[in-house]
């Protein structure tokens, strides 16, 4: 059972809020404390049918009833949605605002909703959709310890959470954990192609790679050893793995990762200026 129950209202019923809601209900959060709004009905009907939630096509109605408002619309819609809430929902200052939109800074939310609000920015990554996410969280100075505990609980329902000191941390977390699944998929694709080149059919090659990735990730999560020590454990001197690793080291995989993260951080910083 959750430590804290508050009425939580999601504005936008896309893939990410649907996964968070699914994780919350599965984790024992009471369905009657979850509210959702969305302009079109089909996703709302699904959520109502599946979990018995309160839904509405009217953002105001959901925001008025909620103690915690989770802004779950695309960043480019955020100004319009927030300004509309500001004009129509009283007491926003008494509610906690949580936003999962990428890019927008605290300053934008103060501009759209008034500067007396309490805001937590969250950057969940895509594996949250399968309950194995990593969410970076950052709070403004008016957010309370109870608020932090509540938001931690919500995002722990779809994975693990890390609190960051400041907003710049979100750009870096986005470049590592947000973009990270794509880096892993790129690597997995390369490994699958290599297996195919050596005669495996695509199906078997895929199975080999996906199960190996799952096994390695599980070992990395369950062990206290550093990644490099885990790697050494699988690498006997003079053996075949050592030869494979030598090829990766010659290609400077570590340097490539640094360049990839640096490029993604720079792009996140650029995109933050668009809003
Ligand atoms: N998916 C991810 O992996 C991920 C990761 C990190 C952060 N995020 C952030 O999470 C947010 C939502 O992403 P998503 O993947 O859930 O997007 P999505 O699947 O595209 O859903 C967006 C939802 O917003 C609804 N919407 C449109 N206009 C609205 C309005 N005026 N008021 C309320 N709802 C409105 C849409 O409804 P209709 O279908 O009726 O148009 C749609 O259901 C975005 O800001 C994104 O940056 C997503």
The N- to C-terminal Cα distance equals: 38 Å
Rg, Cα atoms, Å: 22 Å
Number of folding domains? 2
> Quick one: CATH class of the largest domain?
Alpha Beta
Identify low-pLDDT runs: none
CATH T-level topology of the largest domain? Rossmann fold
Q: What is the CATH superfamily of the largest domain?
A: NAD(P)-binding Rossmann-like Domain
The helix-and-strand class reads: alpha/beta
Give average pLDDT, whole number: 96
> What strand order characterises the main sheet?
3-2-1-4-5-6-7-8
Please estimate the helix content. 40-55%
**Strand/helix succession:** EHEHEHEHEHEEHEHHHHHH
Biggest sheet features: 8 strands, mixed
List all distinct small molecules, including ions and cofactors, that are bound in this structure. NADP nicotinamide-adenine-dinucleotide phosphate
Secondary structure tally: strands:
8
CATH architecture of the largest domain, by name, is 3-Layer(aba) Sandwich
Descriptive report:
The chain has 275 residues and is α/β, with parallel strands linked by helices. The chain has two domains: 8-165, Rossmann fold (3-Layer(aba) Sandwich), CATH 3.40.50; 180-272, ProC C-terminal domain-like fold, CATH 1.10.3730.10. Helix content is 54%, strand content 14%. The chain contains twelve helices and eight strands. It has helices spanning 15-26, 42-51, 59-65, 78-88, 106-113, 145-156, 167-178, 180-197, 202-222, 227-233, 240-250, 253-272; strands at 8-11, 34-37, 54-56, 68-71, 96-99, 118-124, 133-139, 159-163. An eight-stranded mixed β-sheet has the order 3-2-1-4-5-6-7-8, with helices on both faces. Strand 7 (133-139), helix 6 (145-156) and strand 8 (159-163) form a beta-alpha-beta unit. The radius of gyration is 22 Å and the shape is elongated. The relative contact order is 0.09. The model has no long low-confidence stretch (mean pLDDT 96). NADP nicotinamide-adenine-dinucleotide phosphate binds at residues 11-17, 37-40, 43, 59, 72-75, 77, 81, 100-102, 123-124, 126. NADP nicotinamide-adenine-dinucleotide phosphate is lined by residues 11-17, 37-40, 43, 59, 72-75, 77, 81, 100-102, 123-124, 126.
């Amino acid at each position: 059972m959750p430590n804290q129950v508050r009425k939580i209202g999601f504005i936008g019923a896309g893939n990410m809020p649907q996964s968070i809601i699914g994780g919350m209900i599965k984790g024992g959060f009471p369905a009657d404390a979850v509210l959702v709004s969305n302009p079109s009905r089909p996703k709302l009907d699904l959520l109502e049918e599946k979990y018995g939630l309160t839904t509405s096509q009217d953002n105001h109605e959901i925001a008025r009833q909620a103690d915690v408002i989770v802004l779950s619309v695309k960043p480019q819609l955020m100004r319009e949605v927030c300004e509309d809430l500001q004009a129509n929902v009283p007491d926003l200052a008494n509610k906690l605002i949580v936003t999962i939109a990428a890019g927008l800074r605290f300053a934008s939310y103060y501009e759209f909703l008034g500067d007396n609000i309490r805001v937590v920015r969250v950057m969940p990554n895509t594996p949250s959709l399968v309950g194995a996410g990593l969410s970076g969280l950052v709070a403004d100075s008016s957010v309370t310890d109870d608020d932090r505990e509540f938001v931690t609980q919500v995002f722990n329902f779809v994975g693990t959470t890390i609190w960051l000191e400041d907003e710049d941390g979100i750009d870096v977390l986005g470049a590592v954990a947000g973009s990270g699944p794509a880096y892993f998929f790129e690597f997995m694709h390369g490994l699958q192609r290599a297996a195919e080149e050596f005669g495996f059919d695509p199906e078997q090659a895929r199975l080999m790679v996906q199960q190996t990735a799952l096994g390695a990730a599980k070992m990395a999560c369950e062990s206290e050893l550093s990644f490099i020590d885990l790697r050494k454990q699988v690498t006997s001197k003079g053996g075949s793995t050592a030869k494979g690793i030598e090829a990766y080291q010659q290609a400077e995989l570590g340097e490539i990762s640094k360049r990839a993260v640096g490029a993604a951080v720079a792009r996140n910083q650029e995109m933050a200026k668009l809003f």
